[in-house]
Amino acid sequence: MTVYHFMARRPHLPTLRHRLAWTYANLARAHAALADGCANYRRSDHIVRSRLYSGLMTGRMSMRSLLDDEIVKLTSVRACAYCGAQEHLSVDHLIPRNARGSDDSGNLVIACRTCNSSKKDEDLLRWMARRGSFPSIFVLRRYLKLAHAIATDLALLDEDAERAAATRLLTFDPLMLPEQFPPLDRIRLHAEP
Ligand SMILES: [Zn+2]
Fold first, then answer.
1. Ligand 1 centre distance from Cα of residue 134 (Å)
2. Which of 56, 65, 140, 172 is least crowded, fewest Cβ atoms below 10 Å from its Cβ?
3. Ramachandran region, residue 88 (left: φ > 0; alpha: ψ -120 to 50; beta: rest)
4. Residue 114 counted as domain residue
């Protein structure tokens, strides 16, 4: 029997690969708890995080394709991905176009006019931090997959995050990847008004 020792603390995160894997593993932990309506993390949620983190680092697991995120987008209520508003909706580039974000559907989310004009060309995580909010699970998951694909294409995954940021090649801000998530009651699966 395999015993999974869950990590109570953040592991050492020397490279961008570590930071992306850790953020994604934290996201999966929060998703598991929220999907079951839990107010606090259970032992099983911590195990989800530990397994995913080590799986991503050893290459046994991967961040899955954007397909399931596209399904979520098509099947959920039409609302702003950032604030949950249901009026004055348009399309926003998650990774801004000016930051060479693509027009692929994976990079497009529905956003209200207010969020769209407030976010403009700012990095999603930087913009949200400035507003004192945290992205929903589904927006962050999509963002992390895009970020991982971009870092892979640029061969920067094994670079120190600060050095990777200094190259100015990345179209997201690696220094904004949250090493710690807010408490569960501040995280939503989908944005809510
Ligand atoms: Zn909005």
1. 13
2. 65
3. left
4. yes
Question: How is residue 113 written in tokens?
Answer: 């006019």
Statement: residue 142 has pLDDT above 80: yes
**Considering the entire predicted model, what is its pTM?**
0.91
Compute, in angstroms, the gap from residue 118 CA to the centroid of ligand 1: 9
In a domain, 11, yes or no: no
Residue 5 has pLDDT above 70, yes or no: no
Question: Has residue 187 been placed in a domain?
Answer: no
- Is residue 65 pLDDT above 50, yes or no? yes
Cα of 108 vs centre of ligand 1, distance in Å, is: 14
Is residue 19 within 8 Å of residue 174, measured between CB atoms? yes
How far apart CA 86 and CA 43 sit, in angstroms, is 36
Number of domains making up the chain: 1
What's the 92 CA to ligand 1 centre distance in angstroms? 10
Residue 118 has pLDDT above 80, yes or no: yes
Q: How confident is the model at residue 3 (pLDDT cuts 50, 70, 90)?
A: very low
Alpha-carbon span 106 to 65, nearest angstrom? 10
Ligand 1 centroid from CA 113, angstroms: 7
Residue-number span of the structural domain to which 124 is assigned: 16-175
User: Domain for residue 182, yes or no?
Assistant: no
